[in-house]
Amino acid sequence: MDFAIRGKVEFVALENSYGRFLAEDLIADHDVPSFDRSPYDGFAVRSEDTAQITRMNPGVFEVIGEIGAGSVFHTVVGRNQAVRIMTGAQLPEGADAVVMLELTKEIAGEEGKRFELKRPLKSGENISFQGEDTKKGTILAGKGSVITPGIAALLATFGYHEVPAAKKPVIGVLATGSELLDVNEPLQPGKIRNSNSYMILAQIERAGGEAKYFGKFSDDLEQCINAVREALSQVDLLITTGGVSVGDYDYLPAIYEKLGADVLFNKIAMRPGSVTTVAALDQKLLVGLSGNPSACFVGFELFVRPVIRHHNFHLSPHVRKEKAYLGEDFSKANPFTRFVRAELHFNEGRLTVLPSGFDKSSAVSSLAEANALIILPGGTRGYQAGMMVDVLLLDDQKGSDWPWENIVPSYK
Amino acid sequence: MDFAIRGKVEFVALENSYGRFLAEDLIADHDVPSFDRSPYDGFAVRSEDTAQITRMNPGVFEVIGEIGAGSVFHTVVGRNQAVRIMTGAQLPEGADAVVMLELTKEIAGEEGKRFELKRPLKSGENISFQGEDTKKGTILAGKGSVITPGIAALLATFGYHEVPAAKKPVIGVLATGSELLDVNEPLQPGKIRNSNSYMILAQIERAGGEAKYFGKFSDDLEQCINAVREALSQVDLLITTGGVSVGDYDYLPAIYEKLGADVLFNKIAMRPGSVTTVAALDQKLLVGLSGNPSACFVGFELFVRPVIRHHNFHLSPHVRKEKAYLGEDFSKANPFTRFVRAELHFNEGRLTVLPSGFDKSSAVSSLAEANALIILPGGTRGYQAGMMVDVLLLDDQKGSDWPWENIVPSYK
Questions:
Q1: Set of chain B residues whose Cβ sits within 8 Å of the Cβ of A133
Q2: Which of A82, A390, B155, B225 reaches 20 to 30 Å from A328, CA-CA?
Q3: A205 domain-assigned
Q4: Which stretch of A342-346, B168-172, B376-380 has the lowest confidence by average pLDDT?
């Protein structure tokens, strides 16, 4: 995270701002409502004129005009006078209460001119007061917030025709692996289609980045170096997939060296994704993710997403951590902390989490429904259904400040 | 829902398919893996040749070749022979186990030619078998599923260079209300900026529709009728906001009548949003939402989102209902079922839900953080913190089949 940088600000049309990250605090520059208004269709009156009214002793009011929503009434309401007022319209001067239309009865033969009222009103009754929803100066959404429908409404209310948003970081993806076929190629013996790249493109979009796919590496080292150099010049962060295991054909260390990139780490005590490598070059990060689908998936969420969020001004850039009950036994012990793809369920007010079926680092099918990762600390024992565990939520824009403390259960 | 129709299919490039709805079942047309392969870098051997091996009695294997990922080895592995194999590469004929590189020791002076092994292997050890991840014919994601990063990976694996996706329904928005200012206009006495339209545009996007904003109605009935007719010709469903209360200036009933639209309902026993109106014309729906922000918001989620999801082939089109614990008292009783904007929290494995602060139907600020609606059935009593209540989840693509049964708590 020391190498992650904040992005630039760009202005986007309000109607295209859904899902973008706010580049500055959204502050109310006026009260809402900005004037005392009527929440109902009715009549604006002076409450003092209703004080003596009872069912047996109704009051009679003279209608001196009407106020449509958006209009302003320029006469002061006097004794036993009333103004017909529409929902949302500004209260006329002199009046301090609104009586709902349904509670009034027009006087026969004088429709629209006079009405009868059979109950008293308190001062302030049925009025939405200036500032009661939002006071001027209130921060309604902080810098780095994701724009929801509610925030879009607030932006409109406060006149943001153009919204200051974080310019999305451009995240490049370069695939490696001579076993990889393009998606539109027919299957061949020994080969598989390149699925990781398309998974990552979607993960980039979900995280708030702009994905740029550079295709597959060639098998020639010199060409690879040029491909990485060229790709890096077009992006804010470059992901490579595959080629980072200890196999004989691993070009990445040679590429990093040739480019003069500073390798920050190239091994992590976790499963899957132990061979995740991160290097820095000219204030840009190069992230080498494993070629195994689930290792690649996990590596992205743990190491790339926070960089994207940080770029987008998010203040809690890491994957959101919450607690949930393990829904079934996970008996396989592992010396390293394990991140198990899982689906979060809500059962009668309880959060439970179920591993998404088949869980080997090569598995693709278990990823379809996965919306969480269970954190299982390394140790010599397995885990039983009903235990409380930490989970990382993936369909989330709230994030965590730093989720790597106090992981449960701990078997140390 | 009887008037909701299914959409058309269009093909979108896989790299642009994130968040779209699948227009057909995604079925595995081959096994995954499609061949027996090695999950590690190591040597492929015959397990029978290792049966007698112990630490004190190591076996020696002759390396007869190597298999890079994506390559196929054409010689059958024989007695005490081994083939160097890379992660993901296809197992050579004859071999039935893989020994990890770390467990072998090259014989000095014969590097790359012979190695020593000190433990026996079982048949099938360290092999990812054909079909163990996914069997051919498995439905990996049903029609109507939203494309996640995991589903994008599956689509790539099975060769979907172009993805059959539901063509997004075009949802039009027309605002009414002479109190409305455009977002870029300065505030004026008695007027407010049009926030509902922009909120709905974002809600449409979240739900999976394509939003089209037609601006504000004029104050002239004839022009309004033409505006609605023209807008309707360009969309699959048309939303109007405001103008549906009992105020004097309500044009909508007249417009519906003039257009010959069939009004399906124009009042609902709920708060907010009681004046939501839905009409049908030529197999298209016209939805009249209240001008009040929260009524508008709720009305969209309950009445428009299911139509959008149905259009996108989703099988559980309604807003997803789950149970949660009420986080604070909600003392105001109401004769009608109330939908309270709220924020869902995860507390130590428990789902709790907190009303989003100020909750009048005119409130805008409480919408910013709202990601759920609490359903509070109508009755003569309020609700206490700790009670289990039903909540509707808004940041969700899973949906509910029909959420309107067995609402808790019930005070009938």
A1: 358, 360, 362-365
A2: B155
A3: yes
A4: B376-380
A106-142 residue pLDDT tens:
999 988 899 999 999 999 999 999 998 888 998 889 9
Whether A148 and chain B come into contact, CB under 8 Å, resolves to yes
Same structural domain for residues B197 and B343? Answer: no
Answer with the one of B262, B292, B311 that is the final residue of a domain: B311
For chain A, what is the domain count?
4
pLDDT tens digits along A48-57: 999 999 999 9
A234 touches chain B (CB under 8 A): no
What is the pLDDT averaged over residues A340-365? 80
**Smallest CA–CA separation between B242 and chain A, in Å?**
10
Q: Which of residues 250-289 of B touch A (CB under 8 A)?
A: none
pLDDT at A204: 98
Does one domain contain both B185 and B305? yes
Is A159 in the same domain as A245? no
A344/A340 Cα distance (integer angstroms): 12
Q: Is the pLDDT of residue B70 over 50?
A: yes
B177 and B264 within one domain: yes
**Whether residues B149 and B174 fall in one domain:** no
Could you give the CA distance from residue A323 to residue A311 in angstroms, rounded to a whole number?
Answer: 27
Model ipTM? Answer: 0.92
Does residue B4 fall inside a structural domain? no
Q: What backbone phi and psi angles, to 5 degrees, belong to B340?
A: -100, 120
Structural domain of B355: 321-393
Write down the H helix ranges in A68-220: 149-157, 196-207
Q: Which residues of B touch A362 (CB under 8 A)?
A: 33, 39, 88, 128, 133
pLDDT range class, residue A363, cuts 50, 70, 90? low
A192 touches B: beta carbon within 8 Å: yes
**What CATH number is associated with residue A343?**
2.40.340.10
In terms of domains, do B190 and B304 share one? yes
Q: What letter represents residue B370's amino acid?
A: A
B196 touches chain A (CB under 8 A): yes
CATH number of the domain that B254 lies in?
3.40.980.10
Q: What is the CATH number of the domain that holds B24?
A: 3.90.105.10
| Cα of B208 to nearest chain A Cα, Å | 12
Q: Distance, in angstroms, between A346 CA and closest chain B CA?
A: 7
Of A292, A311, A330, the one marking the end of a domain is A311
Residue B126 is assigned to a structural domain of this protein:
no
A3 within some domain: no
Q: CB atoms < 10 A from the CB of A365, how many?
A: 22
**Contact A82/A63 with Cβ under 8 angstroms?**
yes
Which residue from B30, B195, B297 is facing A156, i.e. has the nearest CB? B195
CATH number of the domain that residue B91 is part of: 2.170.190.11
Contact B70 A177 (CB under 8 A): yes
Q: Do A361 and A242 share a structural domain?
A: no
Chain B's closest residue to A341, CA to CA, is: B150
Overall size of chain B counted in residues: 412
- In this structure, the answer to whether residues A328 and A360 fall within a common structural domain is yes
pLDDT in tens, A160-210: 999 999 999 999 999 988 889 999 999 999 999 999 999 999 999 999 999
Closest CA to B210 of B23, B20, B392: B20
Segment B290-346, tens digit of pLDDT: 888 889 999 999 999 999 999 999 999 999 999 999 999 988 888 999 999 999 999
B366 Cα to chain A: minimum distance (Å): 8
